[in-house]
């Protein structure tokens, strides 16, 4: 399966995918990594892995729709079938989500539907978990639909919130789970083992 990946930051999730492909766990090939941030370290990780990269500056486009159209063009040129958002912080256009229906996978650092949605991303998620006094948190991998963090859930895994946890310690615990779940979901997709019926994702054994 040809994979296209969107990033905005350090790319530790991207690295986990690269490592799993290299270990033969995922029957897929990353054809292109696009970042909306020029200094995203994930671009370096991709280049070091010999993967084509592209930085797309949002300011060079008149609208979000034009920006998304360019992304779709680049992915279509490379016959990308599966799109992965690995720490990508921009919203996708309706056209994009419709074109790749149930073929865009996102990772979110909480147990959706808790601590997610507009403006709830990155370290803010862990701060909200701590401020709320939640006893467990975790990560969610889901297909992307028109909403923010609202698409059908593929995999989730929980971790306990300890009394002495900080944003940093929680982020570390959750990232470890992310680095397990995202490659696992991509592996299952590439094996054709994910079946989506409405909101429900079933894993075919
Ligand atoms: C992390 O907050 C992760 O939970 C979320 O995106 C952020 C960056 O992750 N998915 P990465 O290290 O760039 O993969």
From TrEMBL:
Pfam name, any one: Formyl_trans_N
Domain Formyl transferase N-terminal, chain residue ranges per copy: 2-186
Catalyzed reactions: N(1)-(5-phospho-beta-D-ribosyl)glycinamide + (6R)-10-formyltetrahydrofolate = N(2)-formyl-N(1)-(5-phospho-beta-D-ribosyl)glycinamide + (6S)-5,6,7,8-tetrahydrofolate + H(+)
Coiled-coil annotated residue ranges, if any: none
GO biological process, alphabetically ordered: 'de novo' IMP biosynthetic process; one-carbon metabolic process
Enzyme class (EC, first level): transferase
EC number of this enzyme: 2.1.2.2
Function noted in UniProt: Catalyzes the transfer of a formyl group from 10-formyltetrahydrofolate to 5-phospho-ribosyl-glycinamide (GAR), producing 5-phospho-ribosyl-N-formylglycinamide (FGAR) and tetrahydrofolate.
Name used for this protein in its record: Phosphoribosylglycinamide formyltransferase
Native organism: Keratinibaculum paraultunense
């Amino acid at each position: 399966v040809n994979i296209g990946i969107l990033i905005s930051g350090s790319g530790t999730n991207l690295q986990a995918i690269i490592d799993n492909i290299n270990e033969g766990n995922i029957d897929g090939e990353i054809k292109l990594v696009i970042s909306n941030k020029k200094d995203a370290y994930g671009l370096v990780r991709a280049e070091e892995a010999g993967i084509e990269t592209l930085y797309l500056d949002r300011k060079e486009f008149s609208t979000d729709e034009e920006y998304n159209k360019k992304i779709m063009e680049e992915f279509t040129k490379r016959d990308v079938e599966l799109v992965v958002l690995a720490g990508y912080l921009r919203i996708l256009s309706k056209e994009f989500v419709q074109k790749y229906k149930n073929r865009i996978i996102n990772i979110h650092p909480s147990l959706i539907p808790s601590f997610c949605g507009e403006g709830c991303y990155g370290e803010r998620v862990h701060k909200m978990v701590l401020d709320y006094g939640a006893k467990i948190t975790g990560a969610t991998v889901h297909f992307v639909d028109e909403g923010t963090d609202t698409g059908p859930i593929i995999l989730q895994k929980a971790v306990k919130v300890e009394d002495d946890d900080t944003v940093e310690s929680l982020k570390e615990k959750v990232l470890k789970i992310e680095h397990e779940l995202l490659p696992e979901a991509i592996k299952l997709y590439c094996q054709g083992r994910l079946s989506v019926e409405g909101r429900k994702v079933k894993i075919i054994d």
